[in-house]
Amino acid sequence: MRFQTFAWPLLFAFFLAGAAAAQQNEIVAFGDPFPEIRLPAPTDPAARDYLGIPDGATFTPSQIRADVLLVEILNVHCPHCQMQTPSFNELYNLIEQNAGTRGRIKMLGIAAGNLPDEVQDFTRRYQVPFPMFADPRFQAHRAIGGSATPFSIYVRQDSPGKPGVVAGTHLGLNTRYESTYTELQRLTGVNVAELRRQGQAAARVRQAITPLFSEQELEYRVRTAFTTSGGRIVDFARLDLRSGRRVYTALMRRGDHEVRLFAEATSRPSVCDICHDVHFIYLFDTDARVIGFEPLQLTKYGNVNWNAGDVEKMRRRMVGRYLTVPHSYDPRVDAVTSATITSAIIFDSLEQGEALLEELREQGLLKN
Asked: Measuring CA to CA, which residue among 115, 179, 124, 171 is closest to residue 145?
C-alpha cells in the first residue's frame, strides 16, 4: 500500500496545543507527552483508514488508533534519511505482515523543511509505504525540539484525544529494522502511567549548540557587519530580550544624520545529523527591511564551506525583503547549490522575524 504526501497550507500550517510547545528548545525525550500537533486529514481513504482517525478536516497524533506510533522526523536531502528509508520500508512490512502488530503499531513521517513536491518525489523514489507530511516551515520540527534528522520517536499511545508518551527515541541512521520491530512490539505492552512516572525521574535530553566564538569576538563581527552597511558606529549594545535571542543595535552616523540598525546573530542546529550547525548574522533597519547578510559558518554537501559566490547568492535573496512579509521558501529558486538544508534553515530563521519585532516594539525601539 502506498499513501500520498500531505502538507499544511501556508496559512493553516500547524496549530499546537499551546504556544509553549512551539517555543520549546528541548528535544522530546523519554517520558515526555508527545506534542499535540494538529495535522490535515488525508484525503486518501486508504491513509485515513490506516491511521484510524475520525472524520474531520484535521486530526492530532493522539487520535491515531494504535498502541504505538513511530513518528519519523526526516529531511529528504539528508543522506542518512535516504539511506534509512529502505530499512524503514521493511519495518513497515514486518508490522503489516504480522497479525499481532498490524493495526497496533503505526508509522508516520514528517519531512522538516521540505515542500510537498519534494516529499512527493521522495516517496515515489523510495517507495515509502506509510503516510508522510511536509513541514516546510519547521513548525513540527520546533514542536519536538529541533532535533537533527533522521530522528525516530516511539510514542506509546494513550486513550483517544489524550497525548501519548514518548517511550523511546533514536537519533541518526538506523538500519536495524528487525531489532526496532522487536522494541516496538515490546512497547505495545508497556503501561502508559508507568512510563509517565519513570519519565518524571529521568534526566531530560537537551540539545546545545556549541558557540563558534567568544562573546567578545562575536560582538566584533557584529560591529564589523554594521560598519560594512555604511557609516560610523555612534552607539552599540546587545539587547536584553525575554526570548534570549542574540540581538544587537547600533546608532550609525551617516553624513549629517543618524540611523538606528539592528542585527541578530543566529545559530541553528542542522536538520541533517552529519552536517555542521548553521551560524550567520543578518541586519535590518527600523522599517524591518533586511539590509545585510554575513556568514559565520555555512556549509553545503560534504560539510564544504560556502564560497563567495554562494554567500552572494543568499545575500541577493535576503537583502531587501521585509521581516513583516512572509516569504515562502522555494528550493528551486532560493537554495544555494548543494546547500538546500542550510538554505531552508536561513529562510526559516527570517520567518521568525515578526516575533522579534514585537519584542523590539515592547522596548520602544520600533514604532507600531
From this structure: 171
* Strand partners for 322: 289
Sheet containing 278-285, strands listed edge to edge, beginning at the edge strand earlier in sequence = 232-238, 247-254, 257-268, 278-285, 290-297
Long-range contacts of 194-201 (CB under 8 A, 24+ apart): 195/30, 195/31, 195/156, 195/165, 195/167, 196/31, 196/165, 198/30, 198/31, 199/29, 199/30, 199/31, 199/32, 199/165, 199/166, 200/31
Strand partners, 7: 134
Q: Which residue has the cell 535571542?
A: 245
CATH 3.40.30.10: does it fit domain 5-201?
Answer: yes
Backbone angles phi, psi at 268, to 5 degrees: -130, 140
Strand, helix or coil at 157? coil
Question: SS3 for 244?
Answer: coil
β-pairing, 232-238 vs 247-254, is antiparallel
- How far apart CA 53 and CA 65 sit, in angstroms, is 7
Going from N- to C-terminal start, the domains of the chain cover: 5-201, 215-362
- Evaluate whether 271 touches 114 at the Cβ level (below 8 Å): no
Nearest partner of 184 among 127, 107, 123, judged by Cα: 107
How long a stretch of residues is the chain? 368
CA atoms within 13 A on the CB side of 17: 16
How many C-beta atoms surround the C-beta of residue 180 within 10 A?
A: 21
Q: pLDDT tens track of the chain, all 368 residues? A: 566 555 543 323 333 333 333 344 578 888 899 999 888 888 888 999 999 998 888 889 999 999 999 999 999 999 999 999 999 999 999 999 999 999 999 999 999 999 999 999 999 999 999 999 999 989 899 999 888 899 999 999 998 889 999 999 999 999 999 999 999 999 999 999 888 877 766 544 334 466 788 899 999 999 999 999 999 999 999 999 888 889 999 999 999 999 999 999 999 888 888 888 999 999 999 999 999 999 999 999 889 999 999 999 999 999 999 999 888 788 888 999 999 999 999 999 998 888 899 989 988 899 76
Contact 81, 150 (CB under 8 A): yes
**365/260 Cα distance (integer angstroms):** 9
